[in-house]
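Journal club prep — side note

Before the paper discussion, L.F. wants everyone to see what a predicted structure for a comparable chain looks like in token form. Sequence:
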Amino acid sequence: MNATYLKPEERAVYALRELYRSYGYLPFKMSKFEEYDLYVRNKDFLVSDRIITFTDVGGKLLALKPDVTLSIIKNGEDRPGYKQKVCYNENVYRVSGSTHQYKEILQTGLECIGDLDTYDICEVVTLAAASLSAVSQAFVLDISHMGILSAMLDEITTEGDIRREIAACIAEKNPHDLARICTEAGVSEEDTATLRDFMTMYGDMDTVLARLLPLCRRYEAVAIAHGELTELRDHLKNTPYADRVHFDFSIMNDMSYYGGVVFCGYLDGICECVLSGGQYNKLMKRMGRKAGAIGFALYLDLLEGLPHTLPAYDVDVLVLYDTATPVSAVTAKVEALRAEGKTVSAQRAIPDKLRCATLCDLRKEGASC
């Protein structure tokens, strides 16, 4: 296949399919429909809670699937010592981030579910970076750890609304509203200052890990998270992507679903996160599963914003023939040109607006094109 003629999102599908298969991630196929109740129970996990629904012939309320991960979890099973590694290219149905209209969106990604270990986490995060690199070399992968903020908030407040407001301020890097919320909630000045400092922890992996050390002495869970991030850092340092990976604790996913490592990927020229993922062990537990899980999705609709240079020609060669030209002569010429790696269009007349590099006219006696 000539990749020149493919859009960025189409090229990504083919490249990533081969990448994931090379690491043993097997294709996962699913239905277009799921019971609406599956998404209602987990709407905070979804990119958008605007879901297209319909009633089937039996009266059951169904939805065109807006997400793939929930379906994979629902259809899996827990087996001790086993890891389910799957990848997918699936259409989901939701409001597009680029058009803000309902759209059928091709989404690609992978999930690793089961008895996870450090290697699995390193592998998935590395594949996230490799996925971005396959689309564009101008990318950044930002990594955080949900266990750090959870540990800090556990000592500050148990009030769910306040926890969510503080997390939102950190995600937005908004120190003004953070100070106001902490004051209104009676959070101490020391804890407020700690949260404000935590909000600014962003940059290369070594620098951020060094800044995190004082919190390790105060919170046991932070020390554990620091160790996990250190192992991840050591692994990523030996990949081609080390200089494009940052630790950024403003990266937030819903704390009721995610725990452990989370990450977002960005491409130059696109203002939104194009890749999102992390460890969603809490979601697994909420859905009655005992296994651990980590995965990510690449939102291919956002790649439409990347610059795409169209080829100069629609086909390399336009082969012209008429009723007097033997079919065998047309076939032989087309196949010979294709064997040279050229694209060919055989026509009885020159089509309007068709751009070709070379014209081969078999109507002329003794044509040698």
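L.F.'s comment for the group: The mean pLDDT is 88. Keep this in mind when we get to the figures.
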